[in-house]
Amino acid sequence: MTSQLFRSIKAPSNRRGVTLLEIMIAFLIMCVAALGAAGIISHGHKETSHDFRRGEALQILVDRMNFLSSLPFKSLVSEIDGASRNIKEPFKEEQFGTVTIGQNSYNVTATLKKQSITFNNLMELKFPNKDYVHDKPNTWRFRKRTKSTDTYASSSGDNAYIAVKIRVDVTPINSKSSRNERTYSAITFVCNTE
Fold first, then answer.
1. Which of 59, 91, 102, 134 is most deeply buried (CB count within 10 A of its CB)?
2. Rounded to two decimals, what is the model's pTM?
């Protein structure tokens, strides 16, 4: 009975074990796959850092643009020397120039420029007009133009329309990324509505 039991436990002779060569090939395949995965993870980390810097740059851009847009028109005009002014240093307690957040640094500049406003096709309604109805264009009558263009500047009452063009640029600097970083820019206008 024990010999029968021993024969049933004994492995059949047609089975064989795993050789050392097969183990080494499997280990080599696993190492190559692990290196590929490590490369993908490393590349993903670089891209995540790049996206994080881009988010910080856009946050700085929006912050500085909101700050400059919130200043009164007269304050902006008084800061402009001549036709324009470049801001590359702290300005009214707001940081411009090199701004550092954590380990990332950014170059932040702003340009304030007087912007003339020209209306090439300015038309004025002619009054009195007894047939005039504000929502029916076929009842409108226009004055004849004396000039081909009208430029509005802060010269007199009716022509006191002027604007300041604000441009803010933010460029990441000292980044560990090998690719070139782009400059993020925004432009807005502040008009004299007083």
1. 91
2. 0.60
